[in-house]
Amino acid sequence: MKKLKIKQKVILSNLFILLSLLFVLFFIIYPTLKYINNLKDNIEFTESEIEESYQRITSLRKSINQLNEIKTKVEPFYFLTVDKGDELIVIKELENLAFRNNVMQSLGVSFIEKNFINKDSLANDSHYIFKINISGTFLEVLNYLDDLGELPYYFLIENINIGKEKNQENKTITANFSVILNSTISAYSKIE
Questions:
Q1: Topology of domain 87-191, per CATH?
Q2: How far, in Å, CA of 73 to CA of 7, rounded?
Q3: For the residues 124-147, what does the mean pLDDT come to?
Q4: What is the pTM of this model?
Q5: In sequence order, what are the beta bridge partners of 110?
Q6: Are the C-beta atoms of 141 and 175 separated by less than 8 Å?
Q7: Whole-angstrom Cα distance, residue 142 to residue 159?
Q8: What pLDDT score does 120 carry?
Q9: CB neighbours of 152 closer than 8 A, spacing ≥ 6?
Q10: Residue 101 carries which DSSP code?
Q11: What is the pLDDT of residues 95-130, one digit of tens each?
Q12: What is the residue extent of each domain of the chain?
């Protein structure tokens, strides 16, 4: 075997070191850097997902807290309306009101579901329409209307006609009007 010269030994050792470095670079360092970069991307993606989830949870908690606050604020208004099927309570109160004010009264009641509301109507949800006809002296009718406003309901008077009864000499007048009373079936139960 022939002995290598020093120059050749240096070149061969440099070549061996270079090949070793290239091997380490391409087969160890590059895949490791690629893996670390993928990990970085995955961590950033997971971080953004966790941040979005945190924001949604924070928003949900805030909404739940606001919902409880809204329920508390809405509850007093719940008693201004009447549940579907409880119109008899209102009719009795209207009858008592007519008796106290000494007026003759006739009532008609209908329930309107939200899907059948006329766009020109004052109501905007499921509601009762009470058609009321009363007759009595002017002062009695006026007192009835005043007491109607004192009832614990929020009535919307859609139309009112007050006139003198024909062929009556005892100063009897009539009042015909419709009042709308919102129903709680679609207002309060939506937030429970």
A1: Alpha-Beta Plaits (3.30.70)
A2: 94
A3: 86
A4: 0.54
A5: 129
A6: yes
A7: 16
A8: 54
A9: 79, 80
A10: T
A11: 999 999 999 999 998 887 765 445 554 445 678 888
A12: 1-77, 87-191
